[in-house]
């Protein structure tokens, strides 16, 4: 895999603390390069989701800096540009799907990016087709099954053509079949990814690099990753 | 109590009132909304029985035309008419006029009774027209129609989001409720029940707020900055014009009937 020298996303000395929980993140440094799929491991409540939300600027760091595609991000406007290129997939699909129909939901991103209605419809249909979700355009979002919801949320993110995908427990509450389908889709995607998953088998098949978040410190985790690969 | 609540939370999960397809469904949503609003205005401000009864007749015809499920419609109408019944009981005693009978020193008057009946007829007419014209469209169509009618964006979004998340919140409520039942919780009239139900609603509120925050985050992640796009085009066809003109002429007739000495 060809690593280019310029990191897509870089974090320097990031600190974050919740009011009554103490420091969640302590001087976290991290860089994501093209073609990488980084899996971040950690216990429940270790701050993995917090880290992802800090990267896309949904939470503001107490100290430290986020560089998105070479540019330092501070203001909402800068983060807004970062978010267009780094698509975040939420833990709960119901948080992400808020439009009545699937097509409207997938169109929401492109419309925000300034595409006109027809372009947005074309792009959405194309991406739904690519994910094997043809014919779901006019379905009602809250009536979909868990696996279908997950695929539609992936479509809503991919339709914005991000360079980085950030996945927060994508296999949450998916059955084996839906999981396998998601895995195949993700393996075929060219984007660099940051993944949080408690599903060891799933993450081992995706990961090119493993990291560990413990007591607020993010560390490289080389050997366990290899162990998993041997298992698989 | 929980029974009725569960019903009210789930019975309107963003879908139209169950009915068979009819020609009313083909009429443009905006025309239907405007017509029913005007109808309500005219009927409510009528002062005589002739125009209101005519309105009620028209409402019955629309209900028939829109092929509403009679059982479900009746259930809803009865719910309102129970409220109207209290009005019929109270109003004769509070309105002065010619006496019908006297109970414990209170006199019921003909004028009061007639007034109460008039209000009941008006309410039923408006409700039935709303059922047949507005409730037969899905809630999201209604939202879009309102947006096209230049109703403020914020109100339209409020409606659309409510439609989307009512179901999710009611699921959450039912989940918690079932969790309580699984631990042998039974509704009783005691302190423990009140406290537990209080916790339940408090938790529901907190979860809803947190979910709202996550949704807002998810929208920001997709580049949301205050503008919400609606994906549909509504076209008024000749059939819509015909319906609108017929309906409006009927309303003008009702207005005419309200003017003393015109007929």
Secondary structure: number of strands of chain B: 2
**Share of β-strand residues of chain B:** under 5%
**Which overall shape of chain B is indicated by the principal axes computed on the Cα atoms?**
flat
Distance linking N and C termini of chain A = 20 Å
Structural class of chain A: alpha/beta
Q: How would you classify the quaternary structure?
A: heterodimer
CATH fold annotation of the domain at 1-85 and 201-226 in chain A:
Rossmann fold
**Overall form of chain A:** globular
The biggest beta sheet of chain A is recorded as: 6 strands, mixed
Structural class category of chain B: mainly alpha
Helix content of chain B: over 70%
Helices and strands of chain B, in N-to-C order? HHHHHEEHHHHH
Largest interface: A-B, 33 and 26 residues
Q: How much is the average pLDDT of chain A? A: 86
How much of the sequence of chain A is in beta strands? Answer: 25-35%
CATH superfamily of the domain at 1-85 and 201-226 in chain A: P-loop containing nucleotide triphosphate hydrolases
Query: Could you name the ranges of chain A where pLDDT drops below 50 across 5 or more consecutive residues?
Result: 225-232
Question: Would you list the SSEs of chain A in sequence order as H and E?
Answer: EEEHEEHEHHHHEHEHEEH
Number of individual domains of chain B: 2
- Rg on CA atoms of chain A, Å: 18 Å
Structure summary:
The complex is a heterodimer of chains A (232) and B (263). Chain A is of the alpha/beta class. Helices cover 39% and strands 26% of the residues of chain A.
